[in-house]
Amino acid sequence: MKSEAKGSSKSESSQHASLPELKLELSKGRAEETKADVLVVFATKKVESKKAGKGDKKSSPSAKAVVDGARAEISNEVQRLLGGGADEATASSFSGGAGESLFFRQQSLGAARHLLVIGLGETKSFEVETLRQAAAHIMSQLKAQKCKSATVNLDTVPHTSIPGDAWMQALVEGLHMSAYQFAEFKAADKSSAVEKINLVSSTRPKSLEKGLHAGEVIAEAVNFARFLGDMPGNRMTPTLLGEQAQKVAKGTKLKVSVWDKAKIKQEKMGSFLSVSLGSSQEPKFIVMEYKGAASSKKPIVFVGKGLTFDSGGISIKPSAGMEEMKYDMCGGAAVIATLAAIAKLKLKVNAVGLVPATENMPGPSANKPGDIVIARNGKSIEVNNTDAEGRLILNDALCYACELDPAVILDAATLTGAMAVALGNLHTGYFTRHDKLATKIATAAGATGEWVWRMPLTDFHAKDMKGTYADLSNISSGKGAGSATAAAFLEQFVEKEIPWAHFDIAGTAWHTGDRWPYNPRKGASGVMVRTFVQFAMNE
């Protein structure tokens, strides 16, 4: 089975050629007989015997220990290659721990010139996230050594109760997500680009093919969300974001509608419309619909904040770091990518994606502090801080979502700096009053390796959002709990009987590569795409 996945959608405005796309090929056979620059094998950490006395010295691992878990013939061959003292000395520092690796050059191991050994840690601690991160270490080593191709011996993956499709999906996700690089506007360094990876199994069960397909579709969606986020504000306007949503839907069962300013006004989305008034760019409301189940089945509705650039408006932001506000549409990017993945996986669910897209600029017609706007559900809102604009576009989208009679509503937004203060760039904070929904979210996130943390949402937070001259204020009357009060504001636009959760991705939407090796150190992370797709898979 040959499968090729594209790392990101390419913009027609690209000024330079991007990096070659990573190609993955799954085949049955002997890994050492598959031609490539590098042969990759996995090793697990050897558990130390508890019977050893305190004075016993730890012996250096043998060559066999270096590739513990590998097939016998590969292990014997590596023992032969590592027979020299220099290589054995190098191996003595390798324990097989997660994150460890050894690269042996010019070994001529079968059809490969080099050997790469990747540690997975102890077998008892092995999980799918282990392979996702191991894939990142593979890509890191291949790039560093300027190797164009590699063969990964799948038979060296530890035998555990984890199904083959699950660990294969994680491995493929890790490879493709690690291959991502935003190079739209600079001359790409193709010398370190990995072009092809052979995934070789001696048996190649159907489960591996299933995992490969799912991994490629999901990773492609994550990388597409990253691409949308990484594009600068002048190259990813609301209009262009709508065009990207239409483009990614081609060839799928997705129906995409993009409302213009006149339609938004007609639909009485006064709150959303008000945010756009300071910009010369027309707002767009992106609606993506997927029907994979009977029409009687209620849809999952995903809502994403699509602020393609946020200056703060009249309540203007400090200039330092303002360039990062191109990422203020990462929630919308996640929703567009999620719907694309759901459609390509042909999941048996009904799903809708809603993305209110606009800029927040300080033009002559912009919202002013103290202005009062009217939302789609008739509630009036005092705009006491124009930089608290995300909630002013999400609220109208949430009203519309409720009218679709959904089974559940999940929204994602880079909403508050307070969330980044509370949880840093490790966890995405989420808010819901529905315990059953919280359990589903935890299950989905746990399967994907994305960290989420349930945050408090109470009537006190809602009380803090009451307005003086209108029903609501867009900022809290109290101090602290900025993320919770923002969530409480959004809650006022969701029908109580509808399960709803709000994900504040302000801390996790970009610059998370110092935490997860398969994410870019700088740039959009594509956060929540994997969790949202998994949530749909579980429904």
Write the layout of secondary structure elements.
Elements lengths: L1 E3 L18 E6 L7 E8 L19 H4 L5 H10 L3 H7 L9 E4 L7 E8 L8 H17 L4 E5 L10 H16 L16 E6 L4 H25 L7 H12 L5 E5 L1 H6 L3 H7 L7 E8 L8 E5 L1 E5 L19 H16 L4 E11 L10 E4 L5 E4 L6 H13 L5 E6 L3 H7 L4 E4 L3 H14 L3 E4 L3 H5 L8 E2 L8 H10 L8 E5 L24 H10 L1
Helix pairs in contact: 4-5, 5-6, 6-10, 7-10, 9-11, 10-16, 11-15, 13-16
Question: How is this structure best described in words?
Answer:
The chain is α/β, with parallel strands linked by helices. The chain folds into 2 domains: 2-48 and 59-216, Leucine Aminopeptidase, subunit E, domain 1; 233-256 and 282-360 and 388-538, Aminopeptidase (3-Layer(aba) Sandwich), CATH 3.40.630. Helices cover 33% and strands 19% of the residues. It has helices at 63-66, 72-81, 85-91, 128-144, 164-179, 206-230, 238-249, 261-266, 270-276, 330-345, 390-402, 417-423, 435-448, 459-463, 482-491, 529-538, and strands at 2-4, 23-28, 36-43, 101-104, 112-119, 149-153, 196-201, 255-259, 284-291, 300-304, 306-310, 350-360, 371-374, 380-383, 408-413, 428-431, 452-455, 472-473, 500-504. The strands form 3 sheets. Strands 8, 9, 10, 11, 12, 15, 16, 17 and 19 form a 9-stranded mixed β-sheet that branches. A 7-stranded mixed β-sheet has the order 1-2-7-6-3-5-4, sandwiched between helices. A 3-stranded mixed β-sheet has the order 13-14-18, with helices on one face. Helix 4 (128-144) runs parallel beside helix 5 (164-179) and helix 5 (164-179) packs parallel to helix 6 (206-230). The model is unreliable at 1-17, 49-78 and 83-89 (pLDDT under 50).
